[in-house]
């Protein structure tokens, strides 16, 4: 975010140098920007622009709406497949269900993929027996993945590995704790509980003070 602001400010500064009178023009605010907790201050005598922002609830809601309304069209350009789980294997889901996978082998992969990485995969479980998958920039060997016990277990494994806090499943997931060990920490639990209890009010107050 600081890099983005710096880039925008540099461009704005150059425009101000060429055309200082635009400072007096009426600003245009989009509907999306109403979610964005940003305060812009123009120092007229120095031809400078200052930006203050709060990285929190408002920023998250802005990013969420932007992705769901503006960027979702990118997903339509990919070819999506539905992979069925093998008999005896059920796909869980989690509190972080969309997996951006860089895959080299079953023992060499990471979750640092994304929309623009060729041959990267985007994977999301959509039911206990199905998941949605695409491969960016190339076709997939769908036949060997569909109903495959071997690959169903691999997909189940990475879904559990990718979890943030919670796994959701219709039945117990055998071996889950070996894949992603449970952390028992009463102090951390109470700390997070306390933070979340007052988070909404704190965010609303901070945004009100900023704007």
Briefly summarize what is shown:
InterPro entries: DUF4238. The chain is of the alpha+beta class and 211 residues long.
The coarse silhouette is extended
Bin the helical content: 25-40%
Structure annotation, total helices: 7
Elements, N to C (H/E): HEEHEEEEEEHHEHHH
- Number of beta-strand segments: 9
What does the radius of gyration come to?
Answer: 23 Å
Which parts are unreliable, with pLDDT below 50 for 5 consecutive residues or more?
none
Overall mean pLDDT score?
86
Strand order, main sheet: write it out: 3-8-7-5-6
* β-strand amount: 15-25%
> Helices and strands: which structural class?
alpha+beta
Could you give the distance between the termini? 18 Å
What does the main sheet amount to? 5 strands, antiparallel
Number of domains: 2
Task: Provide an overview of this structure.
The protein has helices at 2-18, 57-75, 142-145, 149-161, 176-179, 186-197, 199-210; strands at 38-43, 48-53, 80-84, 93-94, 99-105, 108-110, 121-127, 130-135, 167-168. Strand 7 and strand 8 (130-135) form a beta hairpin. The protein is built from seven helices and nine strands, in the order αββαββββββααβααα. The protein is 38% helix and 21% strand. The two termini are 18 Å apart. By secondary structure, the protein is an alpha+beta fold. The protein has a five-stranded antiparallel sheet. It has a two-stranded antiparallel sheet with strand order 1-2. A two-stranded antiparallel sheet has the order 4-9. The chain has two domains: 2-58, no CATH class; 78-179, no CATH class. The longest helix is centred in the first third of the chain and has 19 residues, at 57-75.
């Amino acid at each position: 975010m600081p890099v983005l602001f710096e880039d925008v400010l540099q461009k704005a500064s150059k425009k101000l140098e060429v055309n200082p009178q635009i400072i007096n023009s009426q600003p245009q605010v989009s509907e999306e920007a109403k979610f964005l907790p940003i305060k812009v201050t123009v120092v007229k005598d120095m031809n400078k622009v200052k930006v203050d922002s709060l990285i929190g609830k408002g920023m998250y809601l802005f990013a969420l709406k932007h992705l769901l309304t503006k960027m979702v069209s990118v997903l339509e350009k990919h070819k999506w497949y539905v992979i069925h789980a093998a008999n005896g294997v059920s796909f869980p889901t989690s509190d972080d269900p969309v997996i951006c996978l860089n895959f080299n082998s079953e023992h060499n992969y990471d979750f640092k993929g994304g929309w623009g990485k060729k041959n990267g995969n985007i994977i999301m479980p959509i039911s206990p027996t199905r998941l949605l998958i695409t491969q960016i920039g190339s076709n997939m060997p769908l036949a060997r993945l569909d109903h495959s016990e071997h690959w169903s277990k691999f997909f189940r494994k990475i879904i559990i590995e990718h979890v943030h806090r919670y796994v959701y499943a219709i039945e117990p997931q055998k071996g889950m704790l070996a894949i992603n060990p449970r952390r028992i920490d009463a102090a951390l639990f109470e700390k997070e509980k306390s933070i979340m209890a007052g988070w909404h009010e704190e965010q609303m107050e901070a945004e009100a003070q900023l704007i």
